[in-house]
Amino acid sequence: MRVLRDCTYCAAVALIGIGGAWAMIEPDQDSHRRLPPLVLKGRMSLEEAIATRRSVREFGDKLLTLEQLSQLCWAGQGITDPRDRFRAAPSAGALYPIELYIVTANGVDHYEPKNHLLERRLVGDVRCSLQRATLDQEAISNAPACVVVAAVVQRTARKYGGRAERYCFIEAGHIAQNILLQATALHLAGVPIGAFEDEKVATVLKLPKDHRVIYLLPIGHPGG
Questions:
Q1: C-alpha radius of gyration, the chain, whole number
Q2: Which of 159, 162, 178, 200 has a C-alpha 20 to 30 A away from that of 54?
Q3: What is the SS3 assignment for 175?
Q4: Are 131 and 137 in contact (CB under 8 A)?
């Protein structure tokens, strides 16, 4: 069984040599990373991915590659129709209120579907702080990556009013399942987490005030 990360130590060490656990990216820094090209035909069928997907909370030490992160982001919110800009998961009115963030040991990145790239928002490892905001669920800090599914409800409310929140929750479910099935097809594993303190998670990740966190998806190579 994998040795659990010491979160007290983790929070105190600057993994990238900036003198602190994390730091805000300055606007003039080059913080955009274009993701690798997509693979649209994998080695595992959809049926096999559905049959073998399981919730996994123990992960090995191996990091995810940029190619794997590329596939996971695309499966959740990637553009699948270049002409009409439709995305991988259905959205009420094609308003796309969901924003994806990727939390790794290096920091927090925001996924931009339009250009299929990651934009660095925070530098440094915040996974231990994120674990404390999720009722101390160890899968958060043990996974090499955690996909954060957040919604800008007002984006949908402009058209659908009081039903917007419901539509955002439904859409988040579509997206989470897409990501988890893609993880399975890549021989990775993950677990959907909905038990957390909303405001604390948003504070740890320094999210905009209009973002509402709905789901956390720790993902990595299965361990244990």
A1: 17
A2: 200
A3: helix
A4: yes
In contact, 216 and 132? CB cutoff 8 Å: no
Residue with tokens 């021989």: 187
DSSP 18-72: SSSS-EEPPTTS--EEEPPPP--S-SS-HHHHHHH--B---B-SPPPPHHHHHHH
Contact 167, 92 (CB under 8 A): yes
What SS3 class is residue 8?
Answer: helix
Q: What is the DSSP letter of 118?
A: E
User: Tokens 């893609």 correspond to what residue?
Assistant: 182
Q: How far apart are CA 210 and CA 224, in angstroms?
A: 38
**Alpha carbon distance 109, 116 (integer Å):** 12
Alpha helix positions (H), the chain? 7-12, 46-52, 66-77, 127-132, 138-142, 153-160, 164-185, 198-205
Both structure tokens of 43? 């080695």
| pLDDT tens, position by position, 135-165 | 999 999 999 999 999 999 999 999 999 999 9
Percentage of residues in the chain having pLDDT higher than 90: 85
- Domains, the chain, ranges and CATH? 44-220 (3.40.109.10)
Query: Of 128, 121, 133, nearest to 105 (Cα)?
Result: 128
Element (H, E) at 150: strand 145-151
Does this model's pTM top 0.70? My answer is yes
